[in-house]
Amino acid sequence: MAAPNEVTFRLPRCPRSVPRARAALLAVLGDWGVDQEVLGNAELVLSELVTNALRVPVPSDRQVGVRIARTVDEGLLRLEVSDAGAGTPELREPGDEETGGRGLLLVEALALRWGVEKRAGGVGKTVFAELKAPDIVAEPVETELAAVMVHPGQYVRVWGAWRAVLDVHTEQHESHESTVVLTLDEGPALRVHATEPLTVRRRGDG
User: Fold this and answer.
1) Rounded distance, CA 206 to CA 203, Å?
2) 69 or 143, which is more confident
3) Rounded CA gap, 159 and 140, in Å?
4) Which of 17, 96, 124, 132 could disulfide-link to 11, CB 3.0 to 4.6 Å?
5) Strand 197-201 to 155-158 pairing
6) Would the pLDDT of 2 be above 60?
7) What strand order describes the sheet that includes 142-146?
C-alpha cells in the first residue's frame, strides 16, 4: 500500500497538544523525505497555528483538528489547523513591549501562502499554510540494510509482504556469530544472521 498523501488527527485543548502536533509532524515528514530546512520551518508554522487555535475561546471539549498533506507533483506541503471558534485571525504589528502577537508574522515569513477557510460542514474555521517542499517524495524510501541495523518502527519486506518491526534483539552464539531476531506485527518472529541483507522502509503505511 502506498503511503498516504495526507494525515489527519485531533488534539485536546491543552498545552501538551503543541509538542504532540510537532512530534506527529516530524514523524510524517521523515517518511516523506522532507529536508531539514523545510522540516524546521514546518515545525515552527504548525506550532504557531496550533497555539493560536488553542487560544480561541470555545468550550473545553471542542478539539483542534490537524491535517498534514502533500502534493508531490507541485512539491508542496500543506498544514491545516481547524477550531470551532468564530472570527478570522489577522496579521498585526505588536508593539515593542508586547510579548505576543507575532505568530502570524512568522507564518507569513515562512509560508509560500496562508489563509483562512470556513470548515466544510462544521462550525468554525480552518487556518492553512503551504510551504515549498521540493524534495518531498511520493513513496517511503526503501533501502537494503544488514539485519543488525534494523530498528523497531521500520518495515521489512518478508514473505512477499511488508511487516512492521515491533522489537529487535540479538542472540550471541558460542561460535561468536550473531543471530538477529525481529518480532513482527504479523506472523512468526524472523531469525536471520546479523549480516543478512533485508529490504527496509521507514515508518509509513506498508
Assistant:
1) 8
2) 69
3) 19
4) 17
5) antiparallel
6) no
7) 142-146, 197-201, 155-158, 161-172, 178-184, 190-193
